[in-house]
Amino acid sequence: MVSFALTTISCTKDVDFNQANDILLTPVFESDLVYINVPANKFLVEGQEVVNLKDSVNIDFFQDEFIVDYLVKAEFMLETTNTINRAFTVQIDMFDDFNQLQHTFSFFSSASPNNSEVVTEHVEIFEGNTLVALKNTTKLIFTLTIQPGEQINESTPGRIILKSKGTFYLNIDS
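Given the sequence above, the corresponding structure tokens read:
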């Protein structure tokens, strides 16, 4: 009986229900953005080498009021795997609903002289003004620009692969 009384008394603690007002949730989520897999001969149009290949994706993710209010940081991770004996520049342009450029960035992907995989990674971080630009973005345009080198033909071996992923950091406070 005495041990029951001591246990009951020792386990009693005042609960401060106002602590619920101090909750801060910080979820992080990831999403694939684009995947491009282009063989070398796709840089030919009617037998002539083209310098640029483009792909675009429309996104409405950043128009959501919840995202606008709570997104505090974002990172785009991009990776190229090049097995073509030509270097590339990868450029990402971000546009709003009015086709106004909000942000742009680019990175270099090295050539593969022996057609083995050459992997290049780039991380673009969005905070402050670049985060505002990201939140205004409704379209991404990915441009692969082939650098000068040996002429490409129908039998040129290799391909370039571009993978991209976004990581989004939210702060949700009460």
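The radius of gyration is 25 Å. Try to locate this feature in the token string yourself.
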